[in-house]
Specification:
By secondary structure, the chain is an all-alpha fold. Helix content is 72%, strand content 0%. The protein has a single domain, classed as Glycerol uptake facilitator protein (Up-down Bundle), CATH 1.20.1080.10. It is globular, with a radius of gyration of 21 Å.
């Protein structure tokens, strides 16, 4: 009996580790690709400066691409603001949210470093670091980033909500990113994503008014989560359920419920199978 429980515990730990590690790699990969292609479109080449439309379309396509590739693996957050919004909406645990943000920042840094390495010195300049235009005040910049991120997060929730009509999250989220860039580039270069701003900034060492690209998007994400999950489409989660999700207990229970009938009927062959699963993980 005790060996059966130990085997079940090992199986659950292995499954959780496999799922989480795959999700973290997906966030790392998606954010790195997003930064590489998106920021790459904003590089100022001597023979041809990028247009606003070019940058918006590239960020649109890059977003659609990474969402399509990693949506089933991790939810395709690719953005600390989106992860925070899901945390506030009780759709992700705190430990997973922290791990997601770390993976996103690491991915953004690697993506920016790769872009820096393959770009000739004449086109590198500040590597697309977000800056506030001279005629825009810091409060205006924060407000713009807040609104841009708010609409992005609302689109993320609407396109991934199982209660809504099924649609393509990749297309909808990509379109919201393009909309944000079409107006936001004139104000702040358009971040909407702290990881997008962090990657290039850490590679070139330029953190002037960098705080704006955290405060604005994160505030907008929280407001969007509150609006969507508590006003537009409130759910029925109890306080106990929300606490269970926050601490990660709900995720463990969900995994435990995958094969409930096998708890009492585990054989020695089942134990060997679970052991092999652990070794693979």
């Amino acid at each position: 009996m005790e060996s059966g429980r130990c085997s079940l515990a090992r199986m659950l730990v292995c499954r959780l580790w496999t799922t989480v590690s795959k999700a973290l790699f997906a966030e790392f990969l998606a954010t790195g690709l997003y930064v590489f292609f998106g920021v790459g479109s904003a590089l100022r080449w001597p023979l041809g400066l990028p247009s606003v439309l070019q940058i918006a379309i590239t960020f649109n396509l890059a977003t659609a691409m990474v969402v399509q590739v990693t949506w089933k693996a991790s939810g395709a957050h690719v953005n600390p603001a989106v992860t925070l919004a899901f945390l506030v909406g009780s759709q992700i645990s705190l430990p997973r949210a922290v791990a997601y943000v770390a993976a996103q920042l690491a991915g953004a840094t690697v993506g920016a470093a790769l872009l820096y390495g393959v770009t000739p010195g004449e086109a590198r300049e500040t590597l697309g670091v977000n800056v506030v235009r001279n005629s825009v005040s810091t409060s205006q910049a924060v407000a713009v980033e807040l609104v841009l991120t708010l609409q992005l997060v609302l689109c993320v929730f609407a396109s991934t909500d199982s209660r809504q009509t099924s649609a393509s999250p990749a297309a909808i989220i990509g379109a919201s990113v393009a909309v944000g860039h079409l107006i936001g580039i004139y104000f702040t270069g358009c971040s909407m994503n702290p990881a997008r701003s962090f990657g290039p900034a850490i590679i070139v060492g330029k953190f002037t008014v960098h705080w704006i690209f955290w405060v604005g998007p994160l505030t907008g994400a929280v407001l969007a989560s509150l609006i969507y999950n508590f006003i537009l489409f409130p759910d029925t989660k109890t306080l106990a359920q929300r606490l269970a999700i926050l601490t990660g207990t709900a995720e463990v229970e969900k995994v435990e419920g995958v094969e409930p009938q096998k708890k009492e009927s585990q054989s020695s062959s089942g134990d060997m199978e679970m052991e092999s699963v652990c070794q693979v993980a």
